[in-house]
Amino acid sequence: MAAIHAENALLPGGLARDVRVTLSDGTIGGVETGVAPVAGDERVEFLLPAVSNVHSHAFQRAMAGLAETRGPADDNFWSWRTQMYRFGLSMGPEHVEAVAAQLYMEMLEAGFSRIGEFHYLHHDKDGAPYVNPAEMSERIAAASVESGIALTLLPVFYAHSDFGGLPPIDGQRRFIHDLDAFARLMERAAGLVADLPGGVLGVAPHSLRAVTGEELAAVQPLANGGPIHMHIAEQTGEVDACLSANGIRPVEWLLENAPVDERWCLIHATHMTEDEAKGVAESGAVVGLCPITEANLGDGIFRASTVLGNGGRFGVGSDSNIEITLSGELRQVEYAQRLSKRLRNVIAPTGGSTGRHLFEHALAGGAAAVGGARGIAPGEAADLLALDHSAVPWVPADKAIDHWIFAEGTRVATVWSGGRRLVENGRHIRRDAIAARFRAAMLDLAGA
Ligand code: ZN
């Protein structure tokens, strides 16, 4: 049985020294503290659970850094979306698979061991379904297999361009299903996910813009007990459109009209009143924060104090995949709060480590929203990351997580997903082959 010996580790009960973790068939077999290493143990400096990334649109990694030129008018989310549609419309299945494999490799190198893929690029370039309607889902699954990241596939139901059931616009033609066709896609997706190690299937009604109330009710049972993810209240424009169509704000509408509970992950939930934020916390839903994307797109700032003060939960996702960094996403959660409140150390309770508090929230929220390890404990998935602390030997163990997140002096050295060691010395074990295929796909796209 493989075993890891850590000088320090973050366990559910707190930091511990001289920790020996045995791995058994993808899960953690046993955890001992205060013990010496045994011959053959893998030795690491600082062992943490790896974190589940709750939200990604893999194909958008291809346009990272290519939409940073100011447009002629007010440059906002909606102008970015127009560019994103144009880019998405040019990608074939082979491009999507190559880009997703690169992305998932980068996520593993960052310390994520599972991805919740909110997958909506379903159809061929002209909007017609592929001969195999799950063609694109299969490409996402293949990329997860190649990289080794655990996949929570969240096929997206998308039917309309705006509130009131308006017909989709041409740029959305690759995303669209009716309910019958979507149910057939979900059947195929269930078969696909059943063959993946640790595969999980959920469902993702895209947003209240793209899904009517009746459709939202119809797609929930298709999750079959799995997670339900939805974009909500990312932009003030969306709140205004909901108010004018329904006379009610989006989060308020959702809490009144859908059975929002622990199975739900509300992506962004940026623009909420105090009452909405309390309602989200009390529902048990996880808020899927995407801090770097929300900053990049100028979305706004999450009501952290109200949600967390009322027992609410959050996980982190990389959404547009503009930058792939776990420490950076956690740092941005805190920095957005500091900038808006003109305070320091906002998220942690008095006397607590901000880095550790951010990390533990993202760990618990991520596992609740998409699955994956909840901590280093027997029976949990062997999703682990080891920090290399050697460059900063003067930093004490109880500051190591803060140092990683805020100063980047500590780095992610080793990552396991489901007990498989996929990142060694900071580098994915198949980096060269995956990166070469990504480069070829991107050059092909750029020349197309
Ligand atoms: Zn998103």
Report on this model:
This protein has 2 domains: 2-49 and 375-428, Urease, subunit C, domain 1 (Roll); 51-370, TIM Barrel. The protein contains 14 helices and 17 strands. The mean pLDDT is 96. The longest helix has 18 residues, at 93-110. It has helices at residues 77-89, 93-110, 135-147, 179-194, 213-219, 236-246, 250-257, 274-283, 291-296, 304-309, 326-341, 354-370, 400-407, 431-447, and strands at 3-11, 14-24, 27-32, 42-49, 51-56, 112-119, 150-157, 200-201, 204-205, 228-232, 264-268, 286-289, 313-316, 384-388, 411-417, 420-424, 427-428. The protein has 448 residues and is of the alpha/beta class. It is globular, with a radius of gyration of 21 Å. Residues 55, 57, 118, 231, 267, 319 line the site of zinc ion.
Please sum up the structure shown.
This protein has 448 residues and is an alpha/beta fold. The protein is built from 14 helices and 17 strands. Helix 2 runs parallel beside helix 3 (135-147), helix 2 (93-110) crosses helix 14 (431-447) and helix 11 (326-341) crosses helix 12 (354-370).
What is the CATH topology classification name of the largest domain?
A: TIM Barrel
The helix count comes to 14
Mean pLDDT: 96
Number of strands: 17
Share of β-strand residues: 15-25%
Give a quick set of tags describing it:
448 residues; Urease, subunit C, domain 1; TIM Barrel; 2 domains; binds zinc ion
How are the SSEs ordered, and which strands pair?
Blueprint lengths: L2 E9 L2 E11 L2 E6 L9 E8 L1 E6 L20 H13 L3 H18 L1 E8 L15 H13 L2 E8 L21 H16 L5 E2 L2 E2 L7 H7 L8 E5 L3 H11 L3 H8 L6 E5 L5 H10 L2 E4 L1 H6 L7 H6 L3 E4 L9 H16 L12 H17 L13 E5 L11 H8 L3 E7 L2 E5 L2 E2 L2 H17 L1
Parallel strand pairs: 1-4, 5-6, 6-7, 7-8, 7-9, 10-11, 11-12, 12-13
Antiparallel strand pairs: 1-2, 2-3, 4-14, 14-15, 15-16, 16-17
The structure holds zinc ion.
The site of zinc ion has 6 residues, from loops.
